[in-house]
Amino acid sequence: MNRIKLTKEEKATLLNVSKNGSKQPRELSPIAFHFALSLLQEKGLVEYKNNYDEVLEAKLTIKAKAYLECNPNLKNPVPWKDIVLITLSAITAISTFIALFISCSISLSK
């Protein structure tokens, strides 16, 4: 299963819902908890019912249960494309600098 990018608050909320249901975790304010639940619902990981600012019921979807089984530590995906591009850019910059240094050394020695 592909990893999903989750914020610290979303991770805390997802783990809390898996253990305690709709009970709000201590480390999150009610607003942050409600907002994290709405973001998780958009990602298809949680279903919840609310009454204005109060969360009445929250439960994990099948997708969330499978995701927690495959990724219990909730590690975010690694941006390999960005890492490769930065590495190639650095190699190009270094090789350009070396070529410039060598060409200047050769022209000064003549």
Report a brief summary of the structure.
This protein is 59% helix and 12% strand. By secondary structure, it is mainly α.
Written account of the structure:
This protein folds into 2 domains: 1-76, Arc Repressor Mutant, subunit A (Orthogonal Bundle); 78-109. The chain is 59% helix and 12% strand. It has 4 helices and 2 strands, in the order ααββαα. Strands 1-2 form a two-stranded antiparallel ribbon. Strand 1 (46-51) and strand 2 (54-60) form a beta hairpin. It is elongated, with a radius of gyration of 24 Å. The mean pLDDT is 89.
Protein topology:
Layout: H1 8-20, H2 30-42, E1 46-51, E2 54-60, H3 62-70, H4 80-109
Antiparallel strand pairs: 1-2
Helix pairs in contact: 1-2
Please name the CATH architecture of the largest domain: Orthogonal Bundle
Strand order of the largest sheet: 1-2
Shape: elongated
Number of β-strand runs: 2
Count of all domains: 2
Largest sheet: 2 strands, antiparallel
The secondary structure category is: mainly alpha
Tally the helices: 4
Q: C-alpha Rg, in Å? A: 24 Å
Which sequence of SSEs, written as H and E, runs from N to C?
A: HHEEHH
CATH class of the largest domain equals: Mainly Alpha
Mean pLDDT: 89
Rounded to the nearest angstrom, the distance between the terminal CA atoms is: 62 Å
Would you give the CATH topology of the largest domain?
A: Arc Repressor Mutant, subunit A
